[in-house]
Amino acid sequence: MRALGQGSIASIVKVALTIAWWVLWAALAGVVLGAVAYGALHIMIGAGWVDASILTGGEGNVRVGGGGGDFHVTYDQPGGATWPVVAPALVIGAVMVIGALVIVGRLRRLFDSFTSGEPFRRENATHLRVIWITMLVMEVARYVLLAGVAGLFAAFGAPAGADADFSINIDLSTWLSIAVLVVLAEVFREGARMKEEQELTI
Amino acid sequence: MAIRVNLDRLLLERRMSLTELAAQVNVTLANLSILKTGKAKAIRFSTLNKLCRALECQPGELLAYEPSAADALEEAADQAAE
What is the dihedral of CA B40, B46, B48, B53, to 10 degrees? Predict the structure, then answer.
């Protein structure tokens, strides 16, 4: 099976990326709906329609942070839904989903070009550059958000049952991927330059 | 690029059209047009050979070196890259 062109591996990957693209849009809609629902819940609590204990009730076991380079806010039980926990969780969700949308969007355009059988185009180098910059922003955002949550907990107090783990985990595979993409972007730029030169050689 | 292609002048002197030259040297009209307008990045020795044969000229008559400000900038950029 061919790697590039119509009916190739690249065209199969392109279909998978299109599916991922729509799944990510659904995830973004979920994050937005979650934010709206949380806002609505606070309005209802403010109006006295809902008991405020819903935010802290139950045997809430909130875990912030985590190992292996991950950064999650998770709930083992109902409760622990106070804003210093939920707001960062929504921000983390939004950053990760939007970042993934940018990456998958650029990958779709890359694979469009691979499917057409012309990989060495200047815009492909730009797509790769945008991908590594997005990955870098997502990785740095992870650390910034972790520091932000620590700040929120310090300022407003950690919710009851919160198990905060603020240890910084350096994800080497992500940094290695970024380094590889930096090099690949320049390889594509050089390839595009050579192809242009070849096309303009008479 | 400080290299100028004098194809226009040579064709005029020989009362030959670009289409006739394209047919003689077996190079597409589009490619000869790229060469004539100075957009070409490089020329193969084989193409140069065919053009010189068809136009009965020396390579030096076809190509000329004319340094310009843009050329100086290009050279400076090359040196910086090294």
Answer: -150
pTM higher than 0.80: no
Its domain, for residue A109, covers 9-199
> Does any CB of chain B come closer than 8 Å to the CB of residue A186?
no
In chain A, how many domains are there? 1
| Nearest residue to A129 via CA among A194, A187, A87 | A187
Strands B63-65 and B3-5 come out as: antiparallel
Separation CA A8–CA A104 (nearest Å): 19
Q: How many domains does chain B have?
A: 1
Q: What is the pLDDT averaged over residues A96-117?
A: 91
Give B31 to chain A, closest Cα distance, Å. 6
* Cβ of residue A200 closer than 8 Å to a chain B Cβ: yes
Check CB contact of A47 with chain B, cutoff 8 Å. Answer: no
Assign residue B11 the CATH number of its domain.
1.10.260.40
Selected residues 10-29 of chain B with any CB under 8 Å from a CB in chain A: 27
pLDDT band at A130 (very low <50, low <70, confident <90, very high): very high
Q: Quick one: closest CA in A to B39, which residue?
A: A200
Residue B43 at interface with chain A, using a CB cutoff of 8 Å: yes
Give the number of C-alpha atoms closer than 13 A to the C-alpha of residue A165, restricted to the C-beta side.
16
Please give the mean pLDDT across all residues of chain B: 88
pLDDT at A187 over 80: yes
**Using the beta-carbon criterion (under 8 Å), do B39 and A200 form an inter-chain contact?**
yes
Which chain B residue is nearest to residue A196, measuring alpha carbons? Answer: B41
For the stretch B4-56, pLDDT in tens is 899 999 999 999 999 999 999 999 999 999 999 888 889 999 999 999 999 99
